[in-house]
Each structure stands twice: as structure tokens, then as C-alpha cells.
Amino acid sequence: MNKHEFQMRYRLHQLSAAIASAPTSYLGRQAAVLIPIIEIDHQLQIVLTQRAMHLRHHPGQISFPGGKVEPTDLNAIDTALREAQEEIGLSAENVEVLGLFPPHKTFTGFEITPVVGFVKQPFELIIDPGEVADCFTVPLSFFINRDNRHEVFHYRHGKRYHVHFMPFEDRFIWGVTAAIIDLLCRHVTLD
To answer: Record's superkingdom (predicted)?
Structure first.
């Protein structure tokens, strides 16, 4: 799938609200993440980060650039773009925002809004070691292949929940990040 086909599929399909989310009645701390998609050698890649080990929330986990909504942010898009600039040096001017997915509630008390965006030009990676241990890309085609997207059930307080996971090389992508990737893949492939 190339950039043009991805954009057409993303815009033509009705937005799915079917994201595996923690069923909580509380309003979580608002956060947003950017799903940065970049074309490298005619192949779409998703940019992911590995969180620093000293972080309080989700240390060492694979994630998208993103974080908590700040009072100065105008909206979820503003938050996601600001965080991408701070964490990996991806400027807002270099991102074409395609849209947003529904917020995802987590058991850890966050309500995360995923923002889908294309990286327009290659950029110099500037990692903030206070937040990010590593940054890497994974071909979108790897995730689109249904055999690479897995899910198990987890029981919490007597209720059953879906937990998504996607091993890639020596990395283990799971939880919210994997659920968002699964939703993105289902959205652009009608899977």
C-alpha cells in the first residue's frame, strides 16, 4: 500500500469506534499520541518509540510519541504534535494530519486520543533521553498482515478484556499501542 492508497482508504472508510478500551466510568487524564507514518524507499513505515526506563508510567514500553494534554494545548492534535517535537524532534510543520481515532481509556487512568499523520519529509531524529530510550520504524505491511497481530484475554476484577500484542524482531509491542495499531490496520483494510 502506498501513501495515496492509504490516504484514500483512511478517508473513505467510516471511522470505527471499535477500539478495545478499558470500560471505566471515570474521566481519565487526557492524553494524545501521534501515529507518525513515513514513506521510506516506497514503503510506508510507522514511527514508534521505546519509553525511557526511569519514567513513572509504562517504563520501557513501546509507544507512539505523545503525552498528557497541557493547559496551553488547543486540542488533541496540538498535544500530539507538541509531544512529537519534544520527544523525537518531529516538527508540526512536517506532519500532515489525516484525522483522529476515538479516545482509548486505560486501566492506568488515561484517556488517549490517537492522531494519524503523515511525515512529509525525512527529519533529523533528536531523541529526548528524559522521555525516550529509542526510536525506530516498522513497515505498515508487517502490521497489516493479520498473522502478526495477536490478542489474548486478561481478567481483571472478574471481567474479561482484550489485550493486543505484536512481536516485531526483538521488540514486544502490546497494550494501548498495539490496540491502536490494530484499529488503524482494520480501518484501512476493512479487516
So the answer is: Bacteria
**Pair 149, 164: CB distance under 8 Å:** yes
Direct distance between the N- and C-terminal alpha carbons of the chain, in angstroms, rounded to an integer: 15
Strand boundaries in 21-141, DSSP class E: 29-40, 43-51, 62-63, 66-68, 95-100, 104-105, 110-119, 132-139
Q: Domain count for the chain, please give it.
A: 1
Q: Which residues of 149-184 are buried (b: 16+ CB within 10 A; e: fewer)?
A: beeeeeeeeeeeeeebbbeeeeeebbbbbbbbbbbb
Domain CATH for 69: 3.90.79.10
Beta strand segments in 52-109, E: 62-63, 66-68, 95-100, 104-105
The span from the CA of 187 to the CA of 93, in Å, is 26
Domain holding 173, by residue range, is 3-189
Query: What one-character DSSP code corresponds to residue 186?
Result: H
